[in-house]
Amino acid sequence: MTRTDIARRVYNHTWKLDPIVRSLLDTDFYKLLMLQMIWGMYPKVDATFSLINRKTTVRLADEIDEQELRAQLDHARTLRFSKKEMIWLGGNTFYGRKQIFSPEFLAWLEGFQLPEYELRKKDGQFELEFPGPWMYTTMWEIPALAIINELRSRAAMKSFAPFALDVLYARAKAKMWDKTERLKKLPDIRISDFGTRRRHSFLWQRWCVEALKEGIGEAFTGTSNVKLAMDTDLEALGTNAHELPMVLAALTDSEEELRRSPYHVLQDWQRYYGGNLLIVLPDAFGTASFLRDAPDWVADWTGFRPDSAPPIEGGERIMAWWRQKGKDPRTKLLIFSDGLEVESIIETYRHFEGKVRMSFGWGTNLTNDFEGCAPIPTDGLNAISLVCKVTSADGRPAVKLSDNPAKATGDPREIDRYLRVFGDKERVRQAVKV
Amino acid sequence: MTRTDIARRVYNHTWKLDPIVRSLLDTDFYKLLMLQMIWGMYPKVDATFSLINRKTTVRLADEIDEQELRAQLDHARTLRFSKKEMIWLGGNTFYGRKQIFSPEFLAWLEGFQLPEYELRKKDGQFELEFPGPWMYTTMWEIPALAIINELRSRAAMKSFAPFALDVLYARAKAKMWDKTERLKKLPDIRISDFGTRRRHSFLWQRWCVEALKEGIGEAFTGTSNVKLAMDTDLEALGTNAHELPMVLAALTDSEEELRRSPYHVLQDWQRYYGGNLLIVLPDAFGTASFLRDAPDWVADWTGFRPDSAPPIEGGERIMAWWRQKGKDPRTKLLIFSDGLEVESIIETYRHFEGKVRMSFGWGTNLTNDFEGCAPIPTDGLNAISLVCKVTSADGRPAVKLSDNPAKATGDPREIDRYLRVFGDKERVRQAVKV
């Protein structure tokens, strides 16, 4: 009886690359929904995405080898949607709707590949940019982040002997399972995995998704990761992101157009999607101004995803607005997704229980929480606040204000102009942990 | 590239038996030391060993399938010492001494096999006995206990899906590693693995031994498990057990002979071994009477292993006796091995630090502590107080009084006779957890 599979061992010890992203479906579902709209409505718009490391004390370019990063990015560029993946995208039901992707869009997607990137090192950081047509560059956000985060984990674990790795993952598993046991006590909660971009690694994300599936059962509603959704027969979840209002705002030619642009985006969205996909992301330029100027029809949408205000205050503000518009919040949905931890999930759930439908999109703290797990002390396994944001559209600077000034992105002068248009009301600076 | 090793998969799915004991060296080292003496001095003595489940609420015969137990015991009987094992026993240095086993003994050992057993079920328990020549039956103690304990673990985990098993072992590893981190704070402590008989499984004991090796380094002095010592280049540790005074006491013909028998055993032992192997096990018939009647030369021995008194009181009593005999306890060794947990190890260590040399033989709570680890509640993974004791010698009942009446074994009338001879002084009933 062979004790060692010789072929596998030789393969394992001679491989050139352990690819982090192995499928174009290894991305967030909302990217595909947005992509169909961008492809349909804004095929000529250019949009540059840029890596932004908010945790500047972490010198990414010192921790991660540039050549390894290039090799991973280059590998991602070789990927195409496989036959099986295309068939699944065309044949699966998403959000209760069949054929959510049009045959024309899918035909185009079949030839999709990630466009070129620009990478430089500066002051210990990577300057990583994805310039080009929006309908190509938008697809870099998730793989770029997943690659950098996993390369950083790998670098941190390079010096770990097998036993230390064994202890590390044993502790991480024990910790994750304890979280599921706490959440299990709230059987009516609704939680989904939003942790692709910030994950420790693909395999770890998969384990965490399995843990939620086993641990909280029906309370686990799905994953934003399309590949994991396909592989594990889960719902693929997610709707839209800040890049939509940010690009459309950047393209406006007047302050009045700028002010109206957040609603313009919603109208675009509604041409493509309905039902539970009608989720408003209100905080691109501050939730207060968004609600103040919102047309009545916005209150007809299914729900809101407050993404940068403290969850309880943010949720209460939206509920007050719904009531003001004559809507019963108990028929509405709030999706929380900003920096969630078990504690804040439970606290938020208890606060809103019975008052509004709610759902939690759990990200970084789900798929990259190794605090206290390493048997050898290292900072390299602590998740950092790394994002890949649209920074310009057709050569014009793109801006995000957010409800939390610490999460604002864009040229400072342009931020000032946006603040003049949208105001600064109720924006509260909070530390951005992840 | 093959993703599945087909041959291995087929093998794994068609095997008839997953043997628990796969080597005659998978036993405690003291069994071999005692065996050499028994073989040399008492080759004609018969001794029956019997399984005793002190935790009668656990109905072993309901939890464990009798046929599986027979298959495992039968498999153990097929084992012989392998060439490599014989060479290692002959060539290795034990307790700093080369050729601790004589060539004549090793020549006999080469043909050793475990003798027959008798197995019946009664009232939900197994009646498992090993009658026959002492120099054969003595070797059943450890494999019989290891087999039953691992069969019990397996039975408890039979209904666990792969994910539950993954969580179980992740938690157990995290728990074990936390113990090593606590013990690491006491760099001068000396700890060894005495957990073979009570282990959850062979693989788990191996993991725990690796964890101690990685986690506390030099403070981990070795293992009682001969196979693990050989495989991992650790010291094989252990000296002698209660069976020696119990058998010799049973063979005596007068109360005076009986009273002297515990010292007679030591004289036998001293003919074979010296140095750090001169460890007194004082509690077979109560430590108080043992110390009261002990000849002065007993104080020249290297140390004591108090095995049933509370560690601090028991240790203090022996230290007082040493002082009374004009010995400085700081030159002497106390080996604690009864029901140790991290807490009691640390407490005992702190109490005796600087006053006496000491060492901890960590058993059940090292290799079978799954409390709080199972994601599905089960009592089947809680270790139980299961022993395999000599119950008769040449047809006469064998007795152990112990410092803890809850650990006494033997016929009640015979126990009364022993109590008349040795007295009941300072024996204190304590709950036997493991």
Automatic annotation (TrEMBL), chains A, B:
Q: Does the keyword Zinc-finger apply?
A: no
Give the pathway listed in the UniProt entry for this protein. Cofactor biosynthesis; NAD(+) biosynthesis; nicotinate D-ribonucleotide from nicotinate: step 1/1
Q: Please outline how this chain is modified post-translation.
A: Transiently phosphorylated on a His residue during the reaction cycle. Phosphorylation strongly increases the affinity for substrates and increases the rate of nicotinate D-ribonucleotide production. Dephosphorylation regenerates the low-affinity form of the enzyme, leading to product release.
UniProt-listed GO biological process terms: NAD+ biosynthetic process via the salvage pathway
Reactions that this protein is recorded to catalyse: 5-phospho-alpha-D-ribose 1-diphosphate + nicotinate + ATP + H2O = nicotinate beta-D-ribonucleotide + ADP + phosphate + diphosphate
Sequence positions bearing Phosphohistidine = H242
- Entries under Pfam families matching the protein: NAPRTase, NAPRTase_N
Q: What does this protein do?
A: Catalyzes the synthesis of beta-nicotinate D-ribonucleotide from nicotinate and 5-phospho-D-ribose 1-phosphate at the expense of ATP.
Query: What is the protein's name according to its record?
Result: Nicotinate phosphoribosyltransferase
Organism of origin = Kumtagia ephedrae
Gene name tied to this protein: pncB
